[in-house]
Amino acid sequence: MDIRLDGITHAYDDFEVLRDISLDIASGQIVCIVGPSGCGKSTLLRFIGGLERPNAGRVLQIGAPPPDSLNPLTYIFQDFALLPWRTVAGNISLVLEDHGIRNAAAQEIIADVLARTKLSDFSGALPKQLSGGMKQRVAIARALAVRPAVMLMDEPLSALDAQTRELLMDDLVDLWTRQPFTAVYVTHNLAEAVRLGHKVVVLSRRPGQIREIVSIDTPLGERAFGDAELDRHQKHLWQLMRDEARAADAELIHG
Amino acid sequence: MADTTTSQGAAHSDSRAVAFRGGGFAPRPRRWVGALVFVVLILVAEWGTRAGWISALTLPKPTDVLETFRELYESGMLFRHLGPSLSRLVVGAAIGASIGISVGVLIGLFSYIRSGLVPLVAAIFPIPKIALLPLFVIWFGIGEGSKYALIAFGTFTPTVVATYGAVDNVDRTLIRMGQSFGLSWWSIVRKIVLPGAMPGILSGLRISLAIAIILLVAAEMLGAEYGIGAYILEAGSLYDLERLFAGVVILSLLGVTVSTVIGAIERRLLNWRS
Ligand SMILES: Nc1ncnc2c1ncn2[C@@H]1O[C@H](COP(=O)(O)OP(=O)(O)OP(=O)(O)O)[C@@H](O)[C@H]1O
Ligand SMILES: [Mg+2]
After folding, report:
1. Could you write out the three-class secondary structure of chain A?
2. For A4, B17, B191, B265, which has the most beta carbons within 10 A of its beta carbon?
């Protein structure tokens, strides 16, 4: 299943946030969206997942989602959004219960996704007992449990420290290499974008418009730390972002 | 040479430990302190009444109160009073709290219900419910009905206010998460909103149930033969301070019991809180 954004424009009252965004998200690809703070990245992601409606433009699903997908468009949130009163296994079973998957069937799925996120030993733990990195892995496990066609990730690693972030990026690359998934990955961290993105979409300052789409051809599994090609991409992205950030600052000064 | 030891021990002649200024603001249960406060107060009262610097008209002697209490227990009257009171308390508070929680959740979830009922609740909250007792007697009869109604009404308002406040405070990102996974409305309410509001609802119940005990006495002012309230009022009208205090002690014990039970429920239900 592909996703197509067709001329998305949105304003909150008179406050224009996004202007004419058109974008294709191909199946099996990770599309990273970067842009200055407040340019409408999270808003765009809410449109893609159907949590909010844009004033103009459409979000289209092209092709049917895989028949076994329980929740085709699935979010992973920056602040994990785990229910603190449920155990790790309980948090995953939460999203299965409404699909009538219980008991043995649920246990099987839970065991599988916990194994894939290396959490098998923690199925009985409460969120308060877990580190930030582990909480986000639980959230990833929960997302995998509903077999999404597209994962919508809003700065999923921003609440974590640098080392944990590196480890989790490796985990995501592993997961993708074993079974490619489609994802829209919002971040303001360019290192994450060049590490995980097949395409990196650079948005301008508010109102967010697409400034440039950078394709990175190096396969995900081969993107090593300090790769010259990736560095070049990252420098280029930084150049674009810096211009936008400067212009945004200047706008503030001149009102 | 004397110098070397100091320089090793304290590194520098004018060094000192950084003053500690953290800590506090995190009360922890200290088991026996609560009981100790009671014991000290009672001992002071006993000492004062015996020594005479508290006159017998000011305060009864704690041992006399204990004696009255023992008589009450041995004559079997304790349970004849306690039984009806407990059933009034349980029935009244259960009705009031369950309607209160339901209405509170509805106010927390629906704009029209909120706009319609919040002013109404604000209007009835400050009414002393005791003042309405005659009205309840007309509506529900002089029997148990009016007593249940008074206690239920008194528990209802604080429960509603606590509940919708608690629902308002449920983390919206968790609700957004539930929606993004396609959970049904009812699942979100049952599995996210209610557990998330539980801490606030329980602390509201502490207050509501204390109010229920206060209203129990008021409810038994009219047409109750048995009941702790009836017992206290009778003793009060006769200026029988020993019996008055015996009754008051029962009410206090009831309050402590309720609070302990809620504490136990909180520990069981809210062990997920960090
Ligand atoms: N529900 C809303 N009502 C009004 N304004 C909103 C709403 N949601 C977002 N905005 C505004 O729209 C703009 C874009 O918000 P959005 O959260 O999408 O930005 P973002 O790119 O995700 O920013 P950040 O990098 O800080 O996460 C912001 O200026 C924000 O204040
Ligand atoms: Mg954002």
Report:
1. CEEEEEEEEEEECCEEEEEEEEEEECCCCEEEEECCCCCCHHHHHHHHCCCCCCCEEEEEEECCCCCCCCCCEEEECCCCCCCCCCCHHHHHHHHHHCCCCCHHHHHHHHHHHHHHCCCHHHCCCCHHHCCHHHHHHHHHHHHHHCCCCEEEEECCCCCCCHHHHHHHHHHHHHHHHHCCCEEEEECCCHHHHHHHCCEEEEECCCCECEEEEEECCCCHHHCCCCCHHHHHHHHHHHHHHHHHHHHHHHHHHHC
2. B191
Q: Confidence band (pLDDT; 50, 70, 90) for A188?
A: confident
d(CA B253, CA B213): 11
Is the Cβ of A52 closer than 8 Å to some Cβ of chain B?
A: no
pLDDT digits (tens, 9 = 90+) for A7-29: 999 999 989 999 999 999 999 99
Query: Ligand 1 atom 5: the closest Cα is on which residue?
Result: A12
CA distances in angstroms from A28 to A3, A31, A183, A184, listed in the order given? 11, 10, 8, 11
- Residues surrounding ion ligand 2 at CB below 5 Å: A 42
Among the partner-chain residues A81, A128, A142, the one whose CB lies closest to the CB of B272 is A128
CB A159 within 8 A of CB A78: yes
> Which token pair is A255?
């009102």
| ∠ CA A65-A68-A70, rounded to 5° | 80
Interchain proximity B174–A49, CB inside 8 Å? no
Instruction: Quickly count: other Cβ atoms within 10 Å of residue A145's Cβ.
Output: 27
φ and ψ at residue A167, rounded to 5 degrees: -60, -45
pLDDT of A104-114, one tens digit each?
999 999 999 99
- Report pTM: 0.84
Domains and CATH numbers, chain B: 62-273 (1.10.3720.10)
Could you tell me if the ipTM is greater than 0.95? Answer: no
